[in-house]
Amino acid sequence: MRRLVLLHGWGQDKRTWQGLLETFGNEAVAWDLPGFGAEKVEEEWGVPEYAEWVERKIKKEGWSRQTRLVLMGHSFGGRIAAEIASKQPEWLAGLILYGAPCLYRPSWKIVMIKHLAKRWRWFKLIKRLVVSSELADADKKGLGKVFRRVVVYDQTEQLSTIKVPTLVLWGEKDGAVPVAMAKEMNSLIDKSKLEIVEDGGHNVHLSNPMLFNGIVKRWYESI
């Protein structure tokens, strides 16, 4: 038996996956990550801490030992999924990294920060981050420090340890994370397939759900 575990991106919550949840039915599950939706974050976490939280959630689900999971992460959620996959858990059957900035490249970081800043209406505050590398006071909930830790976290070495079939899924016109990163990630991960959605942006699952869901389902069924 297999299940698809969906990890949302920064500034979103589990509701963003409604289309895939309907497509996969009971075979898919999505959670709010700490700091988003209904989940509160009590610590100044980075990617490793979020990965540990997801692993605890998976364990708590009580799925049988025969259950094999496919992790799918969008953007920030993809970083978390990659972190877990790099540990090579025995229950992992596959991985989907969708618009996930797993590599720290300063020039790309600035593009991503500006994109997310506009989304969160933090433009003036985060613009200051680009100049001073300070985000301690950007968010009253503490997510400013979390964001800063996440953005500078480089997973180049972890990607080369991933051994499960992996789909690197990207929008051709992703304004947050350049397609060049997708190509580099694809070259680092064994057994990976690169799928670039023509004219797609950073949120193809929302702008073209029918196309997106079809791509995910076909790959999921092929492994």
UniProtKB/TrEMBL annotation:
Pfam families: Abhydrolase_6
Domain (AB hydrolase-1) ranges: 4-209
Signal sequence residues: none
Listed GO CC annotations: membrane
Record-linked InterPro entries: AB_hydrolase_1, AB_hydrolase_fold, AB_hydrolase_sf
This protein's name: AB hydrolase-1 domain-containing protein
Source species: Candidatus Collierbacteria bacterium RIFOXYB1_FULL_49_13
